[in-house]
Design brief:
Elements (H helix, E strand, L loop, with lengths): L1 H5 L9 H4 L2 E5 L2 E6 L4 E6 L12 H10 L4 H14 L5 H38 L3 H35 L9 H4 L1 H12 L11 E5 L6 E5 H8 L4 H10 L6 H9 L6 H11 L1 H24 L14 H12 L12 H29 L3 H14 L1
Antiparallel strand pairs: 1-2, 2-3, 4-5
Length: 382
């Protein structure tokens, strides 16, 4: 029985058409079955919606030569090469992805460094403590920002090379043709605002609304406020190191024609850990908005102590009662920039609280087996 299973069938029982290679496609995967040599080859094609792996052109040519008739397989391979082009080298694409992760880590480090130093520099500048230390911190922030802009350019070039390695774009395409140039310019513009030594000492006067108090802002204070936008870079890095954005997850997305974007990662985390994500967003938003409104309202403390935002705890209290739509009125914004921040805070607070309510309601809902058991128990009770 074993001999009958493994022995080769005689040539007389096979026609030349059946001896030819059997080539067929299924879900984007090409299977090449050699009838005489009882050899099966599988080529995973790199195309949208299909998993890809490394394949060599020499192996494909050998398969073509082994075919006795050859015309059907040559036709399929030719069509494949025309529609797909060069197939993906998995090792190269993985190396580019690891390089991209290292660049993201560098962006994360320099962003955290500049934000942390800017907080210390703001406190020293507002209290007029030490000009030498203040100037040194400004130079460190300026150098780190220049390095961050350079790393941003390198990052987008690496993204282009990574997409080329996966054959998502043509080999001759660049930043302009792929549309990544606009994203790079936006990120650079997001990175440029920062307190620097060249603007030290520049001030401008403003008037507080409804209280008729003249006060002044330094230009570096407002640049500190605009620098909060760099938190988008930190969020992007954290999303990239998520489980839903690694190479295996991207290949699964390609199999089902899903774009593995950061929005997809947020949706996936929202699906798997909704309360953790919303809670983290809520707590972090309280501290971020408290820092922003403190920068906007604190200059008034130089002239009056009616509503003092110098203690950070007062800013936190103002953010909490505003985001939860309570609004006691003991702390309120009186400057133009402070009211802009408070308006943004209100919109974001409504968004977070509503999503938290919907997520909590969804978690309390019965699953299908639980619903059936609950229904049976209620009927039994009746």
């Amino acid at each position: 029985f074993f001999f009958l299973m493994i022995r080769r069938p005689p040539r007389s029982t096979q026609s030349r058409s059946s001896a030819a290679s059997d080539v067929y496609k299924r879900q984007g995967v090409i299977h090449i079955k050699m009838s005489h040599s009882v050899q099966i080859k599988t080529i995973f094609v790199n195309r949208p919606g299909v998993k890809s792996t490394q394949i060599y052109a020499a192996e494909t040519k050998e398969l073509v030569k082994k075919s006795q008739t050859g015309s059907p397989m040559r036709k399929v391979i030719a069509e494949l090469e025309q529609s797909v082009g060069n197939l993906e080298n998995g090792k190269i694409s993985y190396a580019y992805f690891e390089k991209l992760k290292m660049i993201e880590v560098a962006c994360f480090v320099f962003t955290i460094l500049t934000l942390g130093i800017s907080i210390f520099q703001y406190e020293i500048e507002f209290q007029d403590l030490n000009d030498a230390h203040q100037l040194a911190l400004l130079w460190i922030i300026f150098i780190c920002t220049c390095l961050l802009i350079s790393i941003t350019v390198i990052r987008y070039r690496t993204i282009v090379e990574f997409k080329k390695s996966r054959n998502l774009i043509h080999q001759k395409e660049g930043l302009r043709s792929t549309g990544l140039f606009k994203d790079m310019i936006f990120e650079i513009l997001l990175t440029i605002p920062h307190p620097n030594p060249f603007l030290k000492g520049i001030t401008f006067n403003m008037t507080a609304l409804y209280v008729n108090i003249e006060y002044y802002h330094t230009l570096n204070e407002l640049l500190n406020l605009l620098q909060i936008g760099r938190l988008i870079i930190i969020l992007r890095v954290l999303l990239m190191f998520s489980y839903f954005y690694n190479t295996s997850s991207q290949r699964v997305c390609s199999m089902y024609a899903v774009k593995p974007s950061y929005l997809f990662v947020i949706k996936s985390i929202m699906k798997s850990h909704p309360l953790e994500l919303i809670g983290t967003a809520l707590v972090s938003s309280v501290f971020i908005f408290a820092y922003a409104i403190r920068i906007c309202e604190r200059p008034l403390s130089r002239y009056t102590n009616t509503v003092d935002y110098s203690p950070y705890s007062n800013s936190l209290w103002n953010v909490v009662v505003t985001m939860t739509t309570v609004g006691y009125g003991d702390y309120y914004p009186r400057t133009l920039f402070g009211r802009i921040v408070s308006f943004t805070m209100c919109i974001w607070g409504l968004f977070i609280i509503s999503i938290m309510a919907v997520s909590y309601t969804h978690l309390r809902a019965h699953e299908t087996p639980e619903h059936l058991v609950c229904r049976l128990l209620l009927e039994k009770k009746k």
